Amino acid sequence: MTMRKITRMLLLGAVATLALLPAPAEEEQPATATRLALTGLDPVALTEGQQQPGSEQLAVDHEGFRYLFASEASRERFTVNPDRYAIQLDGQCAAMQGARGNPGLFTVHEKKIYLFGSTGCREQFLAEPATYLAPRKEVPRMNVAIMVYEGVELLDFA
Question: Which stretch of DSSP H or E encloses residue 102?
Answer without folding.
Answer: strand 102-109
